[in-house]
Specification:
- By secondary structure, the protein is α/β, with parallel strands linked by helices.
- It folds into three domains: 241 residues, Rossmann fold (3-Layer(aba) Sandwich); 161 residues, 2-Layer Sandwich (Nucleotidyltransferase, domain 5); 27 residues.
- 39% of the residues lie in helices and 17% in strands.
- It is built from 19 helices and 16 strands.
- A hairpin with a 5-residue loop joins β8 and β9.
């Protein structure tokens, strides 16, 4: 193809224009080095995540004409898309090749902001202006009446939103960025509208398979299990998909951030605290959970401050018998059941413990909470547990509960009706338990839920006439005080007998 002439005999920032033109063919270089001179706060600290994202968008690196990008909120996806549009403008003019792009988003305001940023780069990027002789002069190329489109040479760039009727428009590249938002994701009517608009948009994409022309890029993070992004992630085939949550887990079980150039663990801990576990899981962990599969929503969780006066108390242990985090941990759940059948979860935590350490921990937990009965899930490790208890002769009494042939998902799903009807209440501060509860079935571990589900097979409501002494349970008496009370009772009994003898 015919190359446009460029200024040969000068330098740009200490390097010849040829060096810049060669390197600007790489999208990541353009994004990281060149455009950073325009907006250091927008194009800052670009690391491995953005390098992979740029390579995914580059058709020479990642072939494909249908691409989907879903990365956690705050990962500067739109910033990379801005560089992608500039990069295509350079390709179009330098290669004398027609390229037309439509940037489509949910609202008109967001679309106009994207166009403003693009035009700002055209106006302010001195490196590109000095590198390419054809670089347009902002004052003459863009007027106020063209705020929704830029057309220069063989390059055309238009913006649109969901409220724009895209008739008689045809593009070689369509970018759908954040069509799903918090306004249209939670209404079935609005979700249908967005999906229909997305499907009708296919007719304005100039697509020729033989020529390799026509690229559709859908970008966003899900809000709801049935919104457009969730639909593309779960159901749409034929897409090259780039899906990256805020953290990943290595083969050895260690966790690492996917964008450490900008974020720390503390940043996400703060976001999670502000948003709550359910929203955070969807927006940052990218767990698209179908409503039918959920155990509970945040609104279903009920907290308690005081346990009932009349209750039976249980400790349920789901043993794992290992200390490596590549397997499930051992789960420990302490709960009360009142005379009405309501369950109060006092303690729920999991640990990676060896069998002996796990047994000692269970004994201490039962003693601390003064439980009435202790139950273990019968598994391959329970034979060793029985032998350990019998050998030590500690008097620690345990019973076993079995699955009865029911798979784990069926056992856990029985909890749903209890949370829906408010028959399970939990103590505050049990973060791991709430994480499993609100993100199931996409949680990494579900052992605490499984242990709680076993309680439905064993709990027994207490006798209504028996009220437990809460003070005696919450206050540890001194041995001498307890003995004095016992001696007093003996004296009273003896005096009663002696007095009867006088008559």
């Amino acid at each position: 193809m015919t190359m446009m002439p460029s200024r040969p005999s000068r330098t740009v920032s200490g390097r010849p224009p040829e060096w810049w033109r060669k390197n600007c063919r790489v999208l990541y270089f353009l994004c990281k080095v060149v455009l950073r001179t325009v907006w250091e706060d927008k194009f800052h600290d670009l690391g491995e995540l953005h390098r992979q994202l740029c390579n995914f968008l580059d058709p020479a690196v990642t072939p494909g004409r249908r691409k989907m990008i879903s990365v956690f909120r705050g990962s500067y996806k739109t910033t990379v898309l801005l560089a992608y549009v500039v990069w295509n403008m350079i390709r179009s003019i330098e290669e004398n090749r027609p390229i037309s792009i439509c940037y489509n988003t949910s609202t008109k305001d967001n679309a106009e902001l994207f166009m403003d940023d693009f035009q700002q780069i055209i106006k302010e990027c001195e490196i590109l202006r000095e590198t390419y002789a054809w670089w347009p002069k902002y004052e003459t190329a863009f007027r106020r009446k063209t705020k929704n489109k830029v057309e220069f040479g063989h390059f055309k760039f238009h913006i649109a939103s969901l409220d724009v009727r895209q008739v008689s428009r045809h593009y070689t590249i369509i970018i759908n960025d954040d069509l799903v938002n918090d306004d249209n994701a939670f209404s079935e009517v609005e979700r249908v509208k967005v999906l229909r608009k997305w499907r009708l948009q296919k007719s304005i994409l100039t697509k020729y398979s033989k020529k390799g022309i026509g690229t559709e890029i859908d970008v966003g993070t899900p809000y709801h299990s049935q919104d457009l992004m969730a639909h593309i992630i779960k159901n749409v085939k034929g897409y090259a998909k780039f899906i990256v949550p805020y953290r990943l887990v290595a083969a050895d079980g260690t966790e690492f951030l996917t964008f450490p150039e900008v974020f720390t663990w503390e940043d996400f801990a703060e976001i999670r605290e502000d948003q709550g576990a359910s929203i955070f899981a969807t927006q940052y962990e990218l767990n698209v959970i179908d409503d039918a599969d959920r155990i509970a929503y945040e609104g279903m969780i009920r907290y308690f401050k005081f346990s009932p006066e009349n209750y039976n108390r249980y400790l349920i242990v789901d043993p794992a018998g290992t200390e490596t985090k590549r397997n499930d941990p051992s789960a420990f759940v302490v709960l009360d059941v009142d005379q009405g059948g309501t369950i109060y979860v006092l303690y729920a935590q999991h640990y990676w413990l060896k069998p002996v350490a796990m047994q000692k921990f269970a004994e201490n937990l039962a003693k601390t909470y003064k439980v009435d009965e202790v139950y273990y899930e019968r598994d391959k490790y329970t034979i060793a547990i029985e032998d350990t208890v019998a050998h030590e002769g500690s008097g620690f009494m345990i019973s076993f509960v079995e699955s009865g042939g029911r798979p784990k998902p069926k056992r856990i799903h029985r909890l749903k009706q209890y949370f829906e009807t408010g028959r399970i209440m939990i103590a505050q501060g049990m973060r791991d338990f709430e994480d499993q509860l609100l993100t199931y079935p996409d949680c990494r571990h579900d052992d605490l839920l499984d242990a709680l589900a076993y309680s439905l097979d064993i709990i027994d409501a207490p006798n209504k006439k028996i009220v437990r002494d809460r003070d005696a349970e919450e206050k540890v008496d001194e041995f001498a005080e307890e003995m004095n009370r016992n001696f007093a009772k003996v004296r009273e009994a003896r005096e009663g007998v002696n007095q009867d003898a006088f008559y």
